[in-house]
Design goal:
Number of helices: 2
Number of strands: 5
Helix content: 10-25%
Strand order of the largest sheet: 4-3-2-1-5
Order of helices and strands: EEEEHEH
Shape: globular
Number of domains: 1
Largest sheet: 5 strands, antiparallel
Distance between the termini: 21 Å
Length: 81
């Protein structure tokens, strides 16, 4: 159940309103699974490589919210307000 799925990391880019909420990470492939809050909410995969490519193009790194704690349900409830 989504109310139990813990977000292990929240990422954001200072030049974007999008947020990435990772629930899983595979260090071998560099792939995350989680919720992307962009134009709409979408569950799916995103990669560390995508973050690094964007950082090079934008010349500004992605950041991790070190103080974020929550579940998938918390994020979805907040986004629907």
């Amino acid at each position: 159940p989504k109310d139990k799925v813990k977000i292990v990391a929240k990422f954001f880019h200072p030049m974007s309103s999008w947020r990435w909420y990772a629930t899983e990470f595979d260090p071998e492939s560099g792939m995350f699974f989680g919720l992307v809050a962009g134009h709409e909410l979408e569950l799916g995969y995103f990669s560390l490589e995508e973050f690094l490519d964007t950082e090079v193009k934008m010349r500004l790194p992605f950041e991790r919210d070190l103080h974020f704690e929550g579940t998938l349900d918390d994020v979805m409830r907040e986004a629907s307000r």
